[in-house]
Design brief:
The chain is of the alpha+beta class and about 70 residues long. Helix content is about 30%, strand content about 15%.
């Protein structure tokens, strides 16, 4: 969780997590899908707001039916 930034008074929460650093791509993908699922559940519980979810410089995409997912290409 990032420390509150008073220069961004409308920002309610900001933070980050690290994914597993492993040679096994399956472990990395499992971590990624876990966090996308968690963030989907949180977004569905929190009413309103503007969300930004990304992995490094790749923005996740919000799908009303599926929730957060990584872009196809």
């Amino acid at each position: 969780m990032y420390k509150f930034d008073s220069s961004r008074p409308t920002e309610i929460f900001a933070g980050a997590t690290k994914l597993s650093m492993t040679d096994q791509i399956e472990d990395l993908l499992n971590d990624l899908f876990h966090w996308l699922k968690c963030l989907t559940e949180i977004r569905r519980k929190v009413d309103g707001g503007e969300w930004h979810v990304h992995l490094d410089d790749i923005d996740a995409v919000w799908d009303e039916e599926l929730g957060w997912k990584m872009p196809e290409n």
